[in-house]
Amino acid sequence: MNSAQKSLTAPAHVSAIAPYQAGKPIEELAREFGLNPADIVKLASNENPLGMPASAQAALAAASASLARYPDPNGFDLKAALAKRYDVPASWITLGNGSNDILEIAALALLEPGVSAVYAQHAFTVYRLATQARGARHIQVPARDYGHDLNAMFEAIADDTRLLFIANPNNPTGTFVPGTEIDAFLARVHAAHGDRVTVVLDEAYNEYLDPELRFDSVALVRKYPNLIVSRTFSKAYGLAGLRVGFAIAQPVLTDLLNRVRQPFNVNSLAQAAAIAALADTEYLERAYAVNKAGKQQLSQAFEKLSLRYVPSYGNFVLVHVGDAARINLELLKRGVIVRPVAGDGLPEWLRVSVGLPEENERFIAALTEILSA
After folding, report:
1. Full-model pTM
2. CA gap 317, 294 in Å, rounded
3. pLDDT of 23-38, one tens digit each?
4. Which of 19, 81, 195, 300 is deepest in the core (most CB within 10 A)?
5. Distances (CA, A) of 182 to 142, 212, 222, 278
6. E strands, 142-197, where?
7. Which residues pair with 85 in a beta bridge?
């Protein structure tokens, strides 16, 4: 070890971070097992199987002419489109490099050593990572039926708590908390703690909810000044590769988020594609319909195979398979990528993203073969 290596130091809370493990890329699996990339089915990262909307592709082509210049750092046109869609002032909107960036920005703005964040067991792993990266204290609340126990989360709020995360629907379990319960929880938090505790309502999978379950979370932002609602274009809008998300909050919180947001964090192509996708209601409706049918296809297969699963409100299904590591490996050998979730405290489960009907069937056939061997 040379002297430079010996002198290298980092904060203990940073050194303790286990890097985020994304779903295995198709190209990596092809190299690993000598497979044809065209024959691989990826159901690991909750991507939209319909691909990017044609409207967004056309917007990309038009925007490509200006790529020698920096993007609009304030995202004026995208904020204007979002402000119109959600009937809020543009000053209530923060843009992010995917909603993952929004979560990190919120943690950067509000957390530090000596304070704490509250989140649920089996919730999105970035809540843990963002908390750890700021040196803040973790308060992980045990899950109830694989989802959020809001009463327990309220009771877990400490004097030093500054941030509380709710994923709704939740990733990786797919559970959902009705809007009336979210409203009641926010009322309790605000009555007890005022604006000291900021709640992040992470709605990355909101567009996949059945219409009768959807509620106006933006109305809750108007009601509660300590609320941040986070959304993304990566799932139902089909723009995962472009990384664009946004938050809606009242101006005091939005101002804080923008103080620590990186300039130019949403690139020109992402801004243009998001504007087009936001207006493409036909694509969004098709994405919802394909996802609903795909969830039913997977759920019926799991029932036929006598496998326990968590009814999902997102675009994936969490299924209990027992020896998940072995079954995942066997699926990979057959060119099917799903998501192990041992790192989320679920070592016997796999998370399966909803694909096109033929992709779902390919996974079902491979799983059936493995289980019957």
Report:
1. 0.94
2. 10
3. 778 888 889 889 899 9
4. 81
5. 18, 16, 14, 25
6. 161-167
7. none
**Could you tell me the maximum CA-CA distance found in the chain, to the nearest angstrom?**
63
Q: Which residue bears the tokens 């199987």?
A: 49
Buried b (16+ CB within 10 A) or exposed e, 263-300: eebbbbbbbbbbbbbbbbeebbeebbebbeebbebbbe
CA distance 245 to 150: 25
Read off the tokens for 109.
């703005």
Give the C-alpha separation, 324 to 326, whole Å: 6
Residues 6+ positions from 334 with CB-CB distance below 8 Å: 366, 369, 370
Average pLDDT, the chain: 95
Long-range contacts of 15-19, Cβ-Cβ distance < 8 Å, separation of 24 or more: 16/132, 17/129, 17/132, 17/133, 18/343
> In whole angstroms, how large is the CA radius of gyration of the chain?
21
Instruction: State residue 295 phi and psi, 5-degree precision.
Output: -65, -40
DSSP H or E stretch at residue 128: helix 125-133
